[in-house]
Amino acid sequence: GDLREPSLARIMGLPPSNGLIETLQGREHWQDQIQQDQQTSLDHLLTATAQPAANQLLDSMQLQNLIAEARDEYNLVVMNSQPIGNATQTMVLANIIDTVVLVVGSKRAKRIAVRDAIRTLSAASRRPVVMVLNMAA
């Protein structure tokens, strides 16, 4: 879901792919673009290159259809998005997904920024925001 600065493939050590972009642009079906991580058996639909028209792609019927089909296929569908500080894409996603999980770096995040992020996400989402504290130990 982070179409401006995609990093998930690099972080997960997966081959770069623009499967999500191909799907949202209507060129490929999402199931044909899935990559499976051999270590975890998790399926991924990735983005490798930044997209200048990211907001239009995420605010599309193709994404809503993809999510609906993925919900039928999988027990759990997780979408990574850009940090809340770069909010536009995140707000679009928060409006169409079931649950928002805000991951907060314990030593980096300012309390007021976390509070503002929760308020912003709560306003965009129809559901409560769940917060996870990362790097707490």
Task: Summarize the model shown.
This protein has 137 residues and is an alpha+beta fold. It is built from 6 helices and 4 strands; from the N terminus they run H-H-E-E-H-H-H-E-H-E.
What would your notes on this structure say?
The protein has helices spanning 8-12, 19-24, 54-58, 61-73, 88-96, 111-124; strands at 35-36, 43-44, 100-105, 129-134. It contains 6 helices and 4 strands, in the order ααββαααβαβ. The strands form 2 sheets. It has a two-stranded antiparallel sheet with strand order 1-2. A two-stranded parallel sheet has the order 3-4. The mean pLDDT is 83. It has 137 residues and is α+β, with helices and mostly antiparallel strands.
- What is Rg? 15 Å
Order of SSEs: HHEEHHHEHE
Number of strands: 4
> What is the CA-CA span between the terminal residues?
28 Å
